Amino acid sequence: MSSAVSSRVRSVGLDTVKTVAIFGTVMIHATAVGGFNWALGSPAWTANLLWSTLLRCAVPLFLMCSGALFIAPQRELPIGTLWKKYILRILVALAFWAAAYLLWGLYLAGNLTWAGLAQAARDFFKFRHRDHLYYLVIMVVVYAALPLTRLFTAQAGRTLMTYGLGLWLVCGSLLPTLFAFWPFARMEGFVRQYAMQFTWMAIGFGVLGWLIHTRGSSLRPRTYALLYLGGFALTFFGTWLLSLRWGELSGVLLQGNAPGVVMEAAGLFGLCAHRNPAGKVRTLTETLSRSSFCIYLVHLFFLDRLVLAGYYTGTLFPLWAAPVETLFLVLCGFVTWLILKRIPWVNRYLI
Fold first, then answer.
1. Handedness of CA 182, 185, 187, 193 (dihedral sign)
2. pLDDT at 274
3. Under 8 Å between Cβ of 212 and 272
4. How far apart are CA 86 and CA 239, in angstroms?
5. Per-residue b or e along 257-282, where b marks 16 or more CB atoms closer than 10 Å to that residue's CB
6. φ and ψ at 326, to 5 degrees?
7. pLDDT tens digits, residue range 109-122?
8. Which of 130, 87, 120 is nearest to 298 (CA)?
9. By C-alpha distance, which of 136, 99, 100, 95 is closest to 2?
């Protein structure tokens, strides 16, 4: 997602992945705000679920792009440069946008008072930030682990790589999902700690992205398409059935580490990473890729305004409202990027 990656390592395929990912991220947020307040199982609720699961793998796609770019062995990445350039930039952006959203929340609530500011300051230091900023927190860990990740991918043979990714899938995806169902849900003790937190699983997404980017061209596009469709079917139909059974929206299969979402991510990444669009399509994906970090950071400002105005998936039929709202939010974020990128310090550290 970060635009800090230099043009010398720019990949047309990865630009396509990031373009798909930013639309997916915005759509997930557009459907999450009010879209599931419709009657459970109704056409509106089901349509909202459809859009919400179509690109549910958006954040894993961004993580895979980071891995594909930064794990490349030919790329020099000293630890000092890693911390002073990339991690510092993430921390500065996190601090700025966390503060901006806290102040924005006070403004919308009409609570720009000393008491409100004091509470915002406490929330800032307790990391009670706007939800989507979790990505920046995760990226600090992902970047910090890069020296070890790069060593593993450089030294691991096929057997060790397969074993490592298999263990990652079991502990990071399969077990966290199974622990939500009987009889695994009844298990107690340290065995539950076998399940990997998404923050640490994010490192594995980077390895998977690098692996598909460098060695995945041998697989047929149909394989990736089937992988994506299988993941989407598992996520959509599984969530639909579980929600009807439990009487409320089930988030078990909607998490970024859920098996269906991982399948979606691997399939879509493979389909996009080995494509080479030309002409206007190539220019469009490169431009949207460069602006994706800014769009990700600012789009909730505009979403909040839509909600206050009553134009969102909680009041409009999601089948058409979700994609229209997504396009509008991406456009607003893109225009913001066109403005902010002209400010050198902002362009370097904040977007």
1. positive
2. 79
3. no
4. 37
5. bbbbbbbbbbbbbbbbbbeebeeeee
6. -60, -45
7. 999 999 999 999 99
8. 130
9. 136
Where do we find the tokens 């977007």?
Answer: 351
Position 261, amino acid: V
Say what the pTM is.
Answer: 0.93
Q: What are phi and psi of 315, to 5 degrees?
A: -125, -20
Tokens standing for residue 129:
């930030």
Q: Which two tokens stand for residue 75?
A: 């790329």
Distances (CA, A) of 72 to 209, 213, 270, 308: 11, 10, 17, 45
Hey, what amino acid is at 129?
A: H
Please state, for a pLDDT cut of 70, what percent of the chain lies above it.
97
pLDDT bucket at 71, cuts 50 / 70 / 90: very high
In this structure, the dihedral spanned by the alpha carbons of residues 262, 268, 274 and 278, taken in order and rounded to 10 degrees, is: -150
Per the prediction, the chain carries an average pLDDT of: 93
Residues with Cβ within 8 Å of residue 342, at least 6 apart in sequence = none
Assess whether the previous peptide bond of 183 is cis (omega < 30° from 0).
yes
pLDDT of amino acid 100: 97
Instruction: Give 140's pLDDT tier (boundaries 50, 70, 90).
Output: very high
Cα–Cα–Cα angle for 339, 340, 346, rounded to 5 degrees: 165
Task: List pLDDT tens digits, range 238-296.
Answer: 999 999 999 999 999 999 999 999 999 999 999 998 777 777 888 889 999 999 999 99
CB 172 within 8 A of CB 36: no
> Which residue blocks in 11-87 are alpha helix, DSSP H?
12-32, 43-54, 58-70, 79-81
Distance separating the N- and C-terminal Cα atoms of the chain: 10
Contact yes or no for 334/297 (Cβ under 8 A)? no
Q: What is the mean pLDDT of residues 18-39?
A: 96
Whole-number percent of the chain with pLDDT over 90: 86
Residues near 52 by beta carbon (within 8 Å), at least 6 away in sequence:
27, 28, 31, 32, 35, 254, 322
